[in-house]
Sequence to fold (179 residues):
Amino acid sequence: MKAAVKLGPDREIISVYPYRAACPTSVWVRLLDDARKEIYYGGYTNYFIWQQRPRVAKFLADKVTSGARVRFLLGKPDSEVTRAREAVEDVAFTVSTRIRITVDELAKMPDSGIEHRFSEGHLALSVFRFDDQMLVTPHLHGLVGHDSPTLHLKRMQQDGLFDRFATHAEALWEDAERA
Fold:
C-alpha cells in the first residue's frame, strides 16, 4: 500500500524517464492498445513508431475503422529548419530521412483514414497522445529525440499539465500544413 496519495499539481505525472529510449516498449504498446478515441503522434519524425509493434500500420488503420482519430504531425523534410537540425545532430541517419520513413509508411495506406500534416513548430517538443494519457519529450539541445527525457502523463484534472500539452498539440495541428 502506498504511504501517501498524490494530491498536488504533479499528480498527472505517472513516470519520468531520463531518455525516451528508456521508456519501455511495453508502455508504448499498452498505450496504443488501450486508446479508443485519440492517437496523436506529434514527433518531428515519428520514424521509431514503425518499429515498435509488428504490423503497426494495419493496427493503426484498424483503430480508425473502430472509431479512433489517428494523426501524425511531422516536420517538413526539405525545410530550412530540418536542415539546420541535421547540422546540429550531425548523424548519418538524418532528420529528413527519418521523416521520409514515416511519410513512406503513411503513403502505403492512402485510404486508411490516418491524417498527417507538416509543421516546423514542434521541433523542440514531441507529444504522443493516447486518449487521456500521453508521452511528452522535451528535446534537449544537440540530442536526438531518443536521448531526451520523457514524461508519461495521465489526465487527472482540468487545465492540468496534460491539458496544457494537449492544447499545445492541437494548436500546432491547426497551424500545420496539410499533407
In short: The chain is about 30% helix and 20% strand.
